[in-house]
Amino acid sequence: MSPSLGSALCRDGSDTVAVGASATLVLDALLAEGRRFFESSVAQKERFAAAATGTMTGWRKVGVEYSQTPDRPDLNETFCYRHRDDAIDAVPEHPLRHACREAQAVLDVYAADVLASLASSVGVGSSVPAVRTFDESWLQLNWSRPSAASREFIQDAHEDGHLVTFLLA
């Protein structure tokens, strides 16, 4: 991690983090599996609907999530993965779930580094234990079709408390 990461995050609210070759392979596999999943039929995706499992893990169709008001839903589908849901038999296995599992383990390391850099930039000493996010976090893939969107933004600003968000391009 760049030593200036924490100060850039405090100053700008965002920064760019380069990932290593092995992390790139895992994240590329996640994006490829995500594309295959989201391009499948609605009937296939419904087998993995989060609502059917009673957990966070699974697919949500367009319009289920929204930011401020339900009359402005997000114009994207999502697939969420939370590793705590692995212990629940109601969640069916799928290659995308496996790819999410692998990616969350990789991203947790980067999230810990981001949080440590932030802590350092505001004067928290290195004797304080590192923050691990794996047990309290989830990975969410958002899939949109901008050509089908009928408004300027696919998502409005969200206020749902995400501490660290990674955008993959």
* Series of H and E elements: HHHHEEHE
Spatial strand sequence of the major β-sheet: 1-2-3
Rg for CA atoms: 17 Å
Q: How many helices does DSSP assign? A: 5
Rounded mean pLDDT is: 81
**Beta content:** 5-15%
Low-confidence stretches: none
Number of strands: 3
Shape: globular
Terminal Cα span? 19 Å
| Helix content range | 25-40%
Give a short account of the largest sheet: 3 strands, antiparallel
Return the structural class: mainly alpha
Summarize the structure.
With 169 residues, the chain is mainly alpha-helical. It is built from five helices and three strands, in the order H-H-H-H-E-E-H-E. Strands 1-2-3 form a three-stranded antiparallel beta sheet.
Tell me what the structure shows.
- With 169 residues, the protein is mainly alpha-helical.
- Helices cover 37% and strands 9% of the residues.
- It is globular.
Summarize this structure as a short list of keywords or feature phrases.
single chain; 5 helices; 3 strands
Topology, please?
Elements: H1 5-12, H2 21-38, H3 42-46, H4 50-53, E1 58-60, E2 76-81, H5 95-121, E3 139-144
Antiparallel strand pairs: 1-2, 2-3
Helix pairs in contact: 1-5, 2-5
